[in-house]
From TrEMBL:
<dbReference type="GO" id="GO:0004798">
    <property type="term" value="F:dTMP kinase activity"/>
</dbReference>
<keyword id="KW-0547">Nucleotide-binding</keyword>
<keyword id="KW-0067">ATP-binding</keyword>
<dbReference type="GO" id="GO:0005524">
    <property type="term" value="F:ATP binding"/>
</dbReference>
<dbReference type="InterPro" id="IPR027417">
    <property type="entry name" value="P-loop_NTPase"/>
</dbReference>
<keyword id="KW-0545">Nucleotide biosynthesis</keyword>
<dbReference type="InterPro" id="IPR018095">
    <property type="entry name" value="Thymidylate_kin_CS"/>
</dbReference>
<keyword id="KW-0418">Kinase</keyword>
<dbReference type="GO" id="GO:0006233">
    <property type="term" value="P:dTDP biosynthetic process"/>
</dbReference>
<protein>
    <recommendedName>
        <fullName>Thymidylate kinase</fullName>
        <ecNumber>2.7.4.9</ecNumber>
    </recommendedName>
</protein>
<keyword id="KW-0808">Transferase</keyword>
<dbReference type="GO" id="GO:0006235">
    <property type="term" value="P:dTTP biosynthetic process"/>
</dbReference>
<dbReference type="GO" id="GO:0006227">
    <property type="term" value="P:dUDP biosynthetic process"/>
</dbReference>
<dbReference type="InterPro" id="IPR039430">
    <property type="entry name" value="Thymidylate_kin-like_dom"/>
</dbReference>
<comment type="function">
    <text>Phosphorylation of dTMP to form dTDP in both de novo and salvage pathways of dTTP synthesis.</text>
</comment>
<dbReference type="InterPro" id="IPR018094">
    <property type="entry name" value="Thymidylate_kinase"/>
</dbReference>
<dbReference type="Pfam" id="PF02223">
    <property type="entry name" value="Thymidylate_kin"/>
</dbReference>
């Protein structure tokens, strides 16, 4: 594989959006696309990415923190993010590798802040602590009618036999998902220099191409990077 590490700066890209919009699939596809360009990229997720953060992920998504309230969950997510940044994201960026994360700090803003009602000052303070200066260079917000995305989630649960054990956020009602969507769109409107909204109601191949074009527009140096 051609080495583009000397000509292309390491970048941090995050995928955001509601449940069922295709973030995980497209994060994997983007990693493969970058690999073809000679770019070494690692793929991770939030909450998670490190053993400690994965343990927190399991605790939250099983619903064990739900009774504590959105504020306590925001603190847990921040703790997981701090470890994720310090142990995985920052070291890989420092080593010249691109990092792609399925969710990051905008999910806390949307889920616990704009949807859960946690005070913006608390969200901001936790964000400053956890990010430690490592904001994403590009955030791709995958947007879809929540009714369509909601149906996708239900279909996935049936396929995986998880009807009774889907994570606590997937179990929320349609109105909650609509509010969540608006939360992500508001974040994108307020961070236009970093966020790109990509319509996700299309085939996986077409969505991949739309995402790649957004990445090229944000990082034009990729156009001249050697290919694998």
């Amino acid at each position: 594989m051609a080495d583009a590490s000397q000509s292309v700066k390491a970048r941090f890209i995050t995928f955001e959006g509601g449940e069922g919009v295709g973030k995980s699939t497209q994060a994997k596809r983007l990693q493969a696309r970058l690999h073809k360009q000679g770019i070494e990229a690692i793929r991770t997720r939030e909450p998670g990415g490190t053993p400690k953060a994965e343990a927190i992920r399991s605790f939250i998504l099983q619903g064990r923190s739900e009774s504590w309230g959105a504020g306590a969950e925001a603190v847990l997510f921040a703790a997981a993010r701090l470890d994720h940044v310090n142990q995985l994201i920052a070291p890989n960026l420092d080593a010249g590798k691109w990092v792609i994360s399925d969710r990051f700090h905008d999910s806390t803003r949307a889920y616990q802040g704009l949807t859960g009602g946690v005070d913006a000052k608390l969200i901001g303070a936790l964000e400053e602590l956890a990010l430690n200066g490592h904001k994403p260079d590009l955030t791709l917000v995958l947007d879809m009618d929540p009714e369509i995305a909601f149906a996708r989630v239900r279909e996935r649960q049936l396929e995986d036999a998880l009807v009774d054990t889907g994570d606590r956020f997937e179990k929320e009602n349609l109105e909650w998902h609509r509010k969540l969507r608006e939360g992500f769109l508001e974040i994108a409107r307020n961070n236009r220099e970093r966020c790109v909204v990509v319509l996700a109601d299309r085939t996986e191949d077409k969505l991949e191409e739309a995402i790649w074009q957004a990445v090229l527009e944000h990082f034009p140096e990729l156009e001249t990077a050697p290919t694998a």
